[in-house]
Structures are given as structure tokens and as C-alpha cells.
């Protein structure tokens, strides 16, 4: 080991014989920095970029010359659209160690691509212009600018969050959710996006968003100095609370939950359970009656060897109807347990075309609308996690099921893209090309389509 003071070799007793320096504390500091870097790397692998940034910043406080940590922090900043912060970290890294430093490659990749650099610079200018519009109470113009920003820099998290907030104030909750989902796909624990989701839930009944609920970011073109770094929020969103109102609000919230919200929710759930139980009983009775009727028909047909083709076809249709009712009944029983994925799997086996009664079709469609979106979300998370861990066969299986259940088309684009990447990594190139073509055709102009086109070009003919 090298002494940090005189740069001479240190003996095994953690003591420098040249300058008489005790380096035990120094070693502990270096080990702490390495530990925090490893934690940051782990968070990056699971796309918790906010957590990774926190660990890496703490890591650099212990050892500002930790090149790996600084380069990784730059990559994360670049991933969330903060190009200036990314370049800052890579330049500092290069100044500490200019020999064989991968930061050189990162800087060249950004600066040598003039077209991309112009797009990023334009995105930053339009983002600042959007903030000016907001300060001038011109929300419509701000939304237009922010749409252009996220088209130029699709991973610019701050722009997505501000756009979501404007949609929330305009009471366009679907678009707000889409913007927030894009943020969470990039950084799954982004505090601002999660806070806005919480606001969406809290205001679901009133559908109104006041300016006091969540504060907008302020424009700051100046580089923060050392004196104000601690107060500089990573997402530039501040939340102002007054002490007295917090306790009063909590007390009122508890009373409302106790006397209004909870009883209403309990009664609502009980009504749903009772309704589904009655529907299950009606379907059971209808199934039993149908089976008995069919059994009677079968006994009658056994004595008649001249069964016509029309009678056989009708019998087949009735058999399919009974089978569909039995499958629907099983799906209802699973649905009552609350397992949405198992419910969706059971519903997928039901032949909806065979349910020729209004009651059965209505029940089928009702449960399908509840179970399918949640099943799509869970299968996408499973598939993406499998892809990240290298379990590619399992990833393909789970991501394919997303397409089966994603009736709202929230995850299909990403699911197709990662399925294509999984096939590519499995060397099933023909299947990968087919999937990539679907992404390019069905989701033109998106980042996934651009990436799909790039990876398809890498597959040899």
C-alpha cells in the first residue's frame, strides 16, 4: 500500500516508516468509499438510479479520486438526461487520471456527435423556456415546449416530471400517468415521480390540483458552488410544509379516514363480494341446468342412430358453452381470492365466443378489465427482471404474456423490445428480427423503435 502523505510503501502494520503516519483511518475511509461504490452499482443494475446517485455522491465524499464511481455517476446522469452534469463528472475524472480512462470515450461519444449534441442543447433551451412560460402562467405554451423537450431528449426525467405536473393541473390524469410511468421506467424509485403518483391518488376524488400542492422548479442557469451544494435538490422540486398545518392536517385526515373513507371502502368491497357471489351462484345454477338438459339430449340421442349433422353441430356448440361456463366459474373463484395474475391466466382459457348469454358475457368482460391490466404489469416486471439477470428464456416467456393481457397497451412496446433483445442474445436471430420489425412498425418515432432498428442492423444477414 502507498502512503497518502509521502507516497512511499507502507509496512503491514499500517504505519509509514518514512513520515511516521498512521494510515489505519485512511484505509477505513478508502474501504468505505469502495463499499458505497458497490452499493451504487447494485442500485444501478436494478434501475434505482436515484438511490445509486445518493450512494455514489457519498462515495465521492470519502474518496473524490474514485474514478470508477465518478464515471458511473456520469453515466447515470446521462441516462436521466442530465448531459451537463454527466460531462462535468467525466471531465473531473479525466483530470484525476488521464491515462486509460474510459471517461475519454464517454466525452468523445457526446462531443463528436454534433447532431446529437445540438439536439441535447436545444432540449435544454426549450426546457428553460418552458419554465419561463410556467412562471408567466402560460401552461399551454409550457406543455408544447416540454413535449418538444422529451422528443429531443426522451430520458430527460425533469422534463417528464414537469410535464406530468402540468397535466395534473389540467386534470388530464391519463397523460400525467403516462409521463410518470416513463420516468419510473428509467428510474424506478424517482422521488418526484412517486410523489406525483401519490398526489394523483390523493386527488382522485376531487380531480383538482392547486398550485400549492406541488411546487414547480425554478430556472437556474448558474452552476451551483460548494457553499450551496447541500441545499441543491437533485430534482429541483421543493415541498413547503408549515408545522402547525401538518399536525392539524394529520388529525383531520385521521378523522376522515376513520369516519368516512374506511367505512365507505369496506362497504364497497363487501358489495362487490356479494355481487360476485350472487353471479357465481347464478352461473352454477345455469351450468347445472344446462348439463342436465344436455344429459337428457344425450340419452335421447343414444336411441337414435340417425342423428343429423345439424343436431351434432348444435350439441357441439352447447358442449362448448358448458365448458366455457365451467372455466368462467373457476376464473370467478380465483378472482375472489384477489390473485389478478392467476385470474387472468384462468380467463385466457375461457372461450368468450361460446358465452352466448348476456349475463355470462358481462361478467367475463368485467373481470377481464380488472385482471388483465394488472397481470400485464406483473408479467412485464418479471420479464424485465429476468432479462436483467440473464434468464433469457424465462424473460421471453413472461414478456410474451404481456402482449396477451396488455389491453391498455401500456407495456407492449417495451415488452416486445426486450423480447427481441432476449431472442438476439439467445442467438435466435430470425425471431429477433421479427420482433424488432413489430416494434418499428407499431411504435414509430419512439426510443424503443430507434433502438430496435439499431440492434436489428447488427444482426448479420
From TrEMBL:
TPR repeats lie at residues 157-190, 413-446. The keyword Zinc does not apply. SMART domains: TPR. Keywords: Coiled coil, Membrane, Repeat, TPR repeat, Transmembrane, Transmembrane helix. The chain crosses the membrane at residues 239-262. Pfam families: TPR_6, TPR_8. Signal peptide: none annotated. Residues 110-137, 266-318 form a coiled coil. PANTHER family: CELLULOSE SYNTHASE OPERON PROTEIN C, TPR REPEAT-CONTAINING PROTEIN MJ0263. This is TolA-binding protein.
Amino acid at each position: 500500500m502507498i502512503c497518502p502523505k509521502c507516497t512511499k510503501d507502507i509496512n503491514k502494520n499500517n504505519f509509514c516508516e518514512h513520515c511516521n503516519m498512521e494510515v489505519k483511518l485512511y484505509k477505513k475511509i478508502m474501504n468505505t468509499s469502495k463499499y458505497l461504490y458497490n452499493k451504487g452499482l447494485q442500485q444501478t443494475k436494478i434501475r434505482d438510479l436515484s438511490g445509486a446517485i445518493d450512494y455514489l455522491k457519498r462515495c465521492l465524499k470519502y474518496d473524490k479520486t474514485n474514478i470508477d464511481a465518478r464515471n458511473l455517476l456520469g453515466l447515470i446522469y446521462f441516462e436521466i438526461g442530465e448531459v451537463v452534469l454527466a460531462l462535468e463528472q467525466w471531465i473531473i475524472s479525466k483530470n484525476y487520471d488521464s491515462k486509460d480512462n474510459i471517461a475519454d470515450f464517454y466525452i468523445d461519444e457526446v462531443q463528436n456527435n454534433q447532431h446529437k449534441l445540438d439536439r441535447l442543447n436545444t432540449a435544454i433551451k426549450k426546457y428553460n423556456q418552458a419554465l419561463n412560460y410556467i412562471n408567466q402562467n402560460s401552461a399551454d405554451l409550457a406543455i408544447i415546449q416540454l413535449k418538444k423537450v422529451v422528443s429531443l431528449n426522451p430520458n430527460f426525467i425533469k422534463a417528464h416530471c414537469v410535464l406530468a405536473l402540468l397535466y395534473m393541473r389540467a386534470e388530464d390524469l391519463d397523460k400525467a400517468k403516462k409521463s410518470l410511468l416513463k420516468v419510473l421506467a428509467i428510474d424506478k424509485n424517482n422521488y418526484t415521480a412517486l410523489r406525483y403518483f401519490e398526489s394523483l391518488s390523493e386527488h382522485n376524488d376531487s380531480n383538482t390540483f392547486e398550485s400549492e400542492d406541488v411546487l414547480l422548479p425554478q430556472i437556474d442557469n448558474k452552476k451551483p458552488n460548494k457553499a450551496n451544494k447541500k441545499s441543491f435538490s437533485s430534482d429541483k422540486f421543493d415541498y413547503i410544509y408549515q408545522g402547525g398545518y401538518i399536525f392539524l392536517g394529520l388529525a383531520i385526515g385521521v378523522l376522515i379516514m376513520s369516519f368516512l373513507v374506511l367505512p365507505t371502502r369496506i362497504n364497497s368491497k363487501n358489495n362487490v363480494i356479494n355481487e360476485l357471489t350472487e353471479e357465481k351462484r347464478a352461473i352454477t345454477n345455469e351450468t347445472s341446468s344446462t348439463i342436465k338438459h344436455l344429459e337428457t339430449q344425450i340419452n335421447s340421442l343414444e336411441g337414435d342412430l340417425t342423428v343429423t349433422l345439424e343436431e351434432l353441430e348444435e350439441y357441439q356448440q352447447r358442449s362448448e358453452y358448458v365448458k366455457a361456463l365451467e372455466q368462467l366459474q373457476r376464473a370467478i373463484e380465483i378472482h375472489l381470492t384477489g390473485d389478478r395474475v392467476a385470474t387472468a391466466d384462468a380467463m385466457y382459457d375461457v372461450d368468450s365466443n361460446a358465452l352466448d348469454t348476456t349475463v355470462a358475457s358481462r361478467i367475463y368482460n368485467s373481470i377481464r378489465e380488472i385482471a388483465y391490466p394488472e397481470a400485464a404489469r406483473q408479467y412485464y416486471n418479471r420479464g424485465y427482471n429476468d432479462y436483467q439477470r440473464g434468464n433469457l428464456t424465462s424473460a421471453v416467456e413472461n414478456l410474451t404474456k404481456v402482449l396477451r393481457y396488455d389491453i391498455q397497451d401500456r407495456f407492449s412496446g417495451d415488452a416486445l423490445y426486450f423480447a427481441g433483445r432476449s431472442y438476439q442474445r439467445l442467438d435466435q436471430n430470425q425471431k429477433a428480427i421479427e420482433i424488432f420489425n413489430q416494434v418499428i412498425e407499431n411504435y414509430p418515432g419512439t426510443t424503443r423503435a430507434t433502438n430496435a432498428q439499431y440492434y436489428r442492423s447488427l444482426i448479420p444477414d
